[in-house]
Amino acid sequence: QNDWVELLPVAQLAYNSTESESTGKLPFFLNYGFEPEAYRPPRQGEDVEKAIIKAEDIIELHDELRRQLEFVRQRMIKYADKNR
């Protein structure tokens, strides 16, 4: 299986939302003092638009970081191959 990165948040939510046999409490509750929300109705309004814009900005930032990391990786390969 090679999609564990996508499934990890689901597993984490399941674990943290399951009552511990030893404590009788949710691990999430013990860490944060409140129970996790698995579902929250969608919000509407100005804040939603701001969140969408922020999410798009973060996606663009991640894309730029990927390009920069690939550039550095290629440069490292180039210099490493010179010394072989």
UniProtKB/TrEMBL annotation:
<dbReference type="InterPro" id="IPR036397">
    <property type="entry name" value="RNaseH_sf"/>
</dbReference>
<protein>
    <recommendedName>
        <fullName>Integrase catalytic domain-containing protein</fullName>
    </recommendedName>
</protein>
<dbReference type="GO" id="GO:0003676">
    <property type="term" value="F:nucleic acid binding"/>
</dbReference>
<keyword id="KW-0175">Coiled coil</keyword>
<feature type="coiled-coil region">
    <location>
        <begin position="48"/>
        <end position="82"/>
    </location>
</feature>
